[in-house]
Amino acid sequence: MKRTAFVRVLGGALLAAGVALSMAAPASGSPATASAQRSAAELSAAQTKLDKAATSRPSTVTGWYVDGATKALVVSVHGNDQGVAKWASGLGAGAVKIEHVAQAPTPLWNLIGGQAITTSSGSRCSLGFNARSSSGARYVITAGHCTNLGGTWSGSGGTIGTVSGSSFPTNDFGAIGVSSASAASTPLVDRYSAGSDVTVTGPVTASNGMGVCRSGSTTGWHCGSVTGTNQTVCYSQGCVYQMIRTNVCAEPGDSGGSLVTNPGSGSRVQAVGLTSGGSGNCSSGGTTYFQPITEPLSTWSLTLYTG
User: For residues 279 and 250, is the Cβ–Cβ distance under 8 A?
Assistant: First the structure.
């Protein structure tokens, strides 16, 4: 089997990066004096005043809360705190304690198998599985004929990162380095209208007759069985070897999506493969071929996110 060079991405973002905090002196008055004069109800009312004026906050303000231990209204600031105390005082919130944070918060969003991923040029495929290296660098594994398109890839919540490795034809797998700190890698696969997400427990090698289900961004969740293994499939771009043949349908845009064991009435599955190509559609039925997931994991020394 042809092995593909893998360009590793250094400095992978951490999901749970620590936020260093340093406490500054109160903007006005001492904490002891301010807190002694304000009850819990008064502090709650002061917080509500800030809540109602959230859109007028200085650009460096990242949030606020009542600290029950010190009985102070704390305003978190990333950067310069000039004008923050005046803003709070002008709203009738009284004295506040300024808390300088090392990093502004950002919303988190999940990377989930079977959901849409798109290139900067607009092409769409589906996310297969989330994986990581021994150093902790994170990757999205999908079809190689997708990653061959290159560019920056995005998911449901924003940018994921750029292609780190790709193999097609001969194989059909590729990796996208996850560079976004707000993109959370998960062991989940989307079941769309068929039910809640399922959880991947690890990889497995396909066998004839195995019950499987596929998730993809065009047609959602479909199930069937493995009808052959170690099959050579020849596309116009060239042949791909050691593929899994199934009677599960798929359509354009489902490429790269997750093939997992059929969970039945449960919610835990094993990762089987990545959607490659085939014939037919999900209206009349068809044959779909899958790249075994074990090969990219072995080639690039990656492990799946599991739960």
Answer: no
Query: Can you tell me the distance from the alpha carbon of 307 to that of 185, in angstroms, rounded to the nearest whole number?
Result: 11
- Neighbour tally for 297: CB within 10 Å: 18
CB-based contact 280:249 (threshold 8 Å):
yes
Annotated catalytic residue, options 172, 190, 197, 254 = 172
At which residue do the structure tokens 């599960």 appear? 248
Average pLDDT over residues 56-65: 96
Confidence at 9, pLDDT banded by 50, 70, 90: very low
Quick check: is 120 catalytic? Answer: no
> Does the active-site annotation cover 145?
yes
From 81, 126, 145, 222, the catalytic residue: 145
Question: Quick check: 109 and 134 in contact, CB under 8 A?
Answer: no
Quote the CA–CA distance of 274 and 139 in Å, as a whole number. 14
DSSP string of 57-121?
S-TTEEEEEEETTTTEEEEEESS--TTHHHHHHHTT----EEEEESS-----EEEEETSEEEETT
d(CA 21, CA 63): 13
